[in-house]
Amino acid sequence: MRNVLVGLLGLAALGWTAHLATVSPVMAQTGQVTGTLEGEPLDFTVSDGVGGMPGLFYETYGGSGYSGLGIIASALEQSDDSIDGVMLFMDFESEGSVSPADMTADMVADAVIMVVEAWDAGSQNPERVWLAELDGFQSLEIDRLDLGGDAGALSGRIASDSFCLQDMSSGDPEPIVQDNAEICRAGTVNFTMVSGDATTAPPEQPMQIEELGRVTGMIGRDTYEWITFLADGAQATASIDRAGVFDMLNIQAHSSDSDDFLRADILTVTVAGDFATGEIINDGTVPVNVSFFPDGIGSHYTSEIDGGEVSASVSSFTHDSDQGEIEMSLEGRLCRVEDFAPVEGDCKTFELEVMTKLLRAQGG
Known about the structure:
Elements (H helix, E strand, L loop, with lengths): L5 H4 L10 E7 L3 E8 L2 E6 L10 E8 L2 E14 L2 E14 L12 E11 L9 E6 L3 E12 L2 E17 L6 E2 L1 E2 L2 E2 L1 E12 L13 E11 L2 E10 L6 E6 L2 E10 L10 E8 L14 E6 L6 E3 L6 E11 L3 E16 L2 E20 L4
Parallel strand pairs: 17-24
Antiparallel strand pairs: 1-4, 2-3, 2-14, 4-5, 5-6, 6-7, 7-8, 8-10, 9-10, 10-11, 10-14, 12-13, 15-16, 15-24, 16-18, 17-18, 18-19, 19-20, 20-21, 21-23, 22-23, 23-24
């Protein structure tokens, strides 16, 4: 990536070296970045100035016989003394003279996406991020790229199974290893941001959703009812996603009784397997992970650590190239995780009933 990042985040090590030809900043007024990271929900509002980052910024550059476009985008949110969110850096390049409006996803020459793990609001750089690079993307889609003057719009989706934890405190990413191996997660990020006079800015009004299904049950002694849904301009919260040669069912269910519908009391269920044949193993052997986020991202309960367990029974599962439907029962135990470490003695039993439609994720 280019040296324009150095003044913003100190990311010289990512290698943006082309000379700046013209600079056209676009500060995003509206937008949202959503998705999941290893089952943890992501939901951030596009920002401007948090952490010294622009909401949406682009520059054109070029040389003899080629054209380039660099984009920096962020959805960062500051709470008390910490910053959370997502940052995206992309370079488009093509032979000849190509305007920004004509750039497409197959022209992306370099890209980096970061999900903040830890960032002190008083520091120039985040302490730790989950970082994925272009060569580790499973898919990169650009649904809209409309940049010009002081108005612009960018939307798309990135999926990667290589969001790896990096130490960014020096400004240069350094892999964090555990047992001589990098710590990596799979994730999907959807981004939509619009500024200026662009015509499809997300409306600043209550979100309109189409309900896809419901999840009911108990965690500990508490009873919950969640819904899965499709919101205008967003990915479905119950989807079939391609992960390498396999499919995954990703279900992110939200509680209408929660004080924060999009961020608190969120339940995630992931089911792994090759569903291309329509076959799925029953009787408790389905590879399923369940997580519960009572207070949003961070401390949560999960079946993926020692002490956690899931037994699953799938009573019905159908799908075609575009959508599907699943009914299943889940039970087991979820144990609390905080700062990557299990919290001893804090586990809850659960029983869940899942009935939802599934939509094929874009590019899945």
